Amino acid sequence: MNYYIITGASKGIGKAIAEELLKNEKNYIIGVSRSNSIEHPRYRHQPLDFSDVAGVENNLHKIFLPLEDADKLVLINNAGVLGDIGYVGEEMANDQFKFVFDINVTVPAMLMNSFLQTYQQQSCQKVIVNISSGAGKYPVDGWASYCASKAAIDLFSVTVQQEQDKRGTGVKVYALSPGVVDTGMQENIRESDAARFSTVEKFRQYKQKGDLASPEEVGKKVVNFLYNTNQYKDVLLSVRGM
Ligand SMILES: NC(=O)c1ccc[n+]([C@@H]2O[C@H](COP(=O)([O-])OP(=O)(O)OC[C@H]3O[C@@H](n4cnc5c(N)ncnc54)[C@H](OP(=O)(O)O)[C@@H]3O)[C@@H](O)[C@H]2O)c1
Fold it and tell me: How do 2-7 and 72-77 pair as beta strands?
């Protein structure tokens, strides 16, 4: 059996990846998020709120169960939040920084740590995919915490890959940017106020002109990537080029 641990599998890109993977009877999914929307014999849901880091720590053992029959083990850190949109220093609550970093960086790092600790000794193929963003490569005003969190997960991924290479474990780590995708996150972006985010109109235009990729389309591309990771040498990748 191939095991895929996917965070944020309840909606958007994560759900589309999970549903695409479930088409193959050799795949088993462990989904982790606050809510669940998938019922399937090869799907197990672990409810967790990533803004509660202590709660995540206490429940890690429920996610990473022994999987001795695994032919392939994959962790997909997909759950993510944008946080409140707005300029730093202008009506921005301090607790937003921790909120965004806990969900987008701290918990994904903890999951990578536990995944490697639990499954390191298994000889099967092991892959970690962190869903990143173009916004981790350039600034977007109004999104400072989000941009910084995605830049952090990019360099975290590159560093962990270097460590795995030095240890010769064969583990592959990727930070994959999905492009602009028609999910709840984009809905929130479009609803924001231009005074707090100067390029909001560009995002409204993406929707009006039909320029957003569907989650299903992106889910298929990510799954195709997961089936062919041996073709990809770089850690930082974009779904757009696939
Ligand atoms: N959509 C885009 O255009 C776009 C572009 C670049 C990058 N991305 C990245 O792609 C990933 C998926 O985004 P999406 O667009 O699919 O977003 P989405 O539709 O808003 O889905 C977000 C997922 O994250 C989970 N999540 C949110 N808060 C959580 C929490 N506190 N604890 C546990 N899980 C939580 C949600 O599950 P629950 O609500 O059930 O907890 C949901 O399954 C994110 O990392 C995002 O940064 C998206």
Answer: parallel
